[in-house]
Amino acid sequence: MYLSRMLLNPQRRKTRFFLASPHAMHAAVMSCFPTPLDGVNRERVLWRIDQLGNRVVLYIVSPDRPSFEHLQEQAGWSAQSSWDTRPYGAALQRIENGQTFAFRVLVNPTHVVTKDGKKKRMGHETAEHQLRWLIDRSSQAGFSVVEQDGDPMIRVVRSDKISFRRGSGKVTLVRAGFDGVLRVEDATAFVRTLTQGIGRGKGYGCGLLTIAAVAASESAKAA
């Protein structure tokens, strides 16, 4: 497995197009693999776009090493190579129960409603329901959200609904982004979450959970 990060240039027309269309962004991500992926490996490619002001970062977790030259020409910073790819396997092997990490994830929080006898999948649009959606799935995903004074150390940092074209149809996607602190409860399940994602909408940039060392102040709270 590989973990890649690429800086995109938000001033370029193609970058703005990708940001407005997760379907187009997914196609661009898949074009980074010179050898066509089979069905299984294609499903295992996870990606996410993080935006903070003018900083736009693409993250990819994939079974094969991507090649970003083409995407660099379309949406990167032309003066320099703006990507980094590292093997992910060694880091995954070091995951153990009881470890705490800062995490970030963008998900498509959905639920099924029944109306007039018909079932329909809808997106959760309130922060309360979005938080509950993630916390309810954390155990199966191999982690728990760390609490401080009885409150979970997690916050919604992004919530939106985006509509975009896919072929002749239109897709509407509800997204919620979270930052928080987690504790690994089941290392095997957690590694599976890191490599296979969480929830639906993975082809549209949802589901990729990334982790980092907890800052010293947060680590003390998590102890």
Automatic annotation (TrEMBL):
PROSITE patterns: PROKAR_LIPOPROTEIN. InterPro entries: CRISPR-assoc_prot_Cse3. SMART domains: CRISPR_assoc (SM01101). This is Type I-E CRISPR-associated protein Cas6/Cse3/CasE.
